Amino acid sequence: LIPTTTPARPLLPFSTGPGSPLFQPLSFQSQGSPPKGPELSLASIHVPLESIKPSSALPVTAYDKNGFRILFHFAKECPPGRPDVLVVVVSMLNTAPLPVKSIVLQAAVPKSMKVKLQPPSGTELSPFSPIQPPAAITQVMLLANPLKDLFLSTYVT
């Protein structure tokens, strides 16, 4: 994840827990038959936000600094025919008194995986108001991990 720019620091060691949704694709309800061989392309996959059912896993805070927060919400099901693909709804929230503009989420994964970010719901977050819910942007992230490799998530601020 790259919300802004400076040196990278480790944030979420997804490889440490056996219950991490990133490595529990068999617990998701897959639809259709599995792909033959390690299918990595995500070009033909689109998951509408309104079709996603949340899993019972708690959201993961991927970033939280200066009132800007990024949360990962994991889907209950994989895309049809792709049990190797994890569906994540990324929520970006602003609790700061200033607006956040020109937001672009970027994601990178090891060569054995592929990631696809579907279009976000917006690119700007209004300032926080104590009498209204915080402004939010949502974006669907698809993560193909056919070899079930472990990896460490990092962020740049």
Automatic annotation (TrEMBL):
<dbReference type="Pfam" id="PF02883">
    <property type="entry name" value="Alpha_adaptinC2"/>
</dbReference>
<dbReference type="GO" id="GO:0006886">
    <property type="term" value="P:intracellular protein transport"/>
</dbReference>
<dbReference type="GO" id="GO:0010008">
    <property type="term" value="C:endosome membrane"/>
</dbReference>
<keyword id="KW-0813">Transport</keyword>
<dbReference type="GO" id="GO:0006893">
    <property type="term" value="P:Golgi to plasma membrane transport"/>
</dbReference>
<keyword id="KW-0333">Golgi apparatus</keyword>
<dbReference type="InterPro" id="IPR013041">
    <property type="entry name" value="Clathrin_app_Ig-like_sf"/>
</dbReference>
<dbReference type="InterPro" id="IPR008152">
    <property type="entry name" value="Clathrin_a/b/g-adaptin_app_Ig"/>
</dbReference>
<dbReference type="GO" id="GO:0031267">
    <property type="term" value="F:small GTPase binding"/>
</dbReference>
<dbReference type="GO" id="GO:0072657">
    <property type="term" value="P:protein localization to membrane"/>
</dbReference>
<protein>
    <submittedName>
        <fullName>GGA3 isoform 21</fullName>
    </submittedName>
</protein>
<dbReference type="InterPro" id="IPR027422">
    <property type="entry name" value="GGA1-3"/>
</dbReference>
<dbReference type="InterPro" id="IPR008153">
    <property type="entry name" value="GAE_dom"/>
</dbReference>
<keyword id="KW-0653">Protein transport</keyword>
<dbReference type="GO" id="GO:0005802">
    <property type="term" value="C:trans-Golgi network"/>
</dbReference>
<feature type="domain" description="GAE">
    <location>
        <begin position="55"/>
        <end position="157"/>
    </location>
</feature>
<dbReference type="GO" id="GO:1990778">
    <property type="term" value="P:protein localization to cell periphery"/>
</dbReference>
